Amino acid sequence: MANSRRTPLFAGVGVLAVLLVAASMIVAGPVAQSAGPAPAAVVKTRYSPLGATANGPSGPATAKFTVAPYCCPSTAITLTPTTVSTEGDFQWLNLGLPSDNTTITLIEVCYTVTSTVPGRTYISQTRITDMTLPNSALVRLDDPADRNSTSPVCYTVSTSFTPTGTLTLALKVVIGSTSDRINVGMVALTGVAP
In the chain, is it the N or the C terminus that has fewer CB atoms within a 10 Å radius of its CB? Predict the structure, then answer.
């Protein structure tokens, strides 16, 4: 009888030991199988355009348009001209893009143009600058493609750089009539984190 009482106890201890060994293998398994650093992760950061500023060749005082929340949704913005502007007027919409520890590979801008004459009003340049000291900024991306869609769309521009300072998206705009508008929605940066 004494043997029959000890058998379940020893069997229980044996089962417990097997479970503990299995659990330690599960916990230690992935660590033991690690074969070097993890691959870089692709990161997409989305930004609201709220906070963007209108700038002319000598800063905000020389801007020929204003920036305000768009109606419906009010999280987008609308550029409203105070006068007509041409390529030579150097009118820019600037938006800060916080980004750290990422190699930038792509910029995405969502927008639409409201105009009765197609091609009269458009985004004429997409630029990203990188600034540390306040007296200069390095141009990291400069895309001269005209963006004049009268339907809401998003466009992308490929690039490859690692920022050394703060990033600013600058959209150069040409507005051919004071009744025209440019609306800007989401802006996104895609990059690779180390």
Answer: N
CA pair distance 186, 194, nearest whole angstrom = 25
Q: What is the mean pLDDT of the chain?
A: 86
Range scoring the smallest mean pLDDT among 16-25, 90-99, 139-148:
16-25
Among 180, 182, 116, which Cα is nearest to 146's? 182
pLDDT, average across residues 151-176: 97
pLDDT for the residue numbered 20: 41
63 — phi, psi (to 5°)?
-70, 140
CB atoms within 10 A of CB 62: 13
Task: Answer yes or no: pTM beyond 0.85.
Answer: no
Task: State whether CATH 2.60.40.1180 applies to domain 41-193.
Answer: no
Domain map (residue ranges) of the chain:
1-36, 41-193
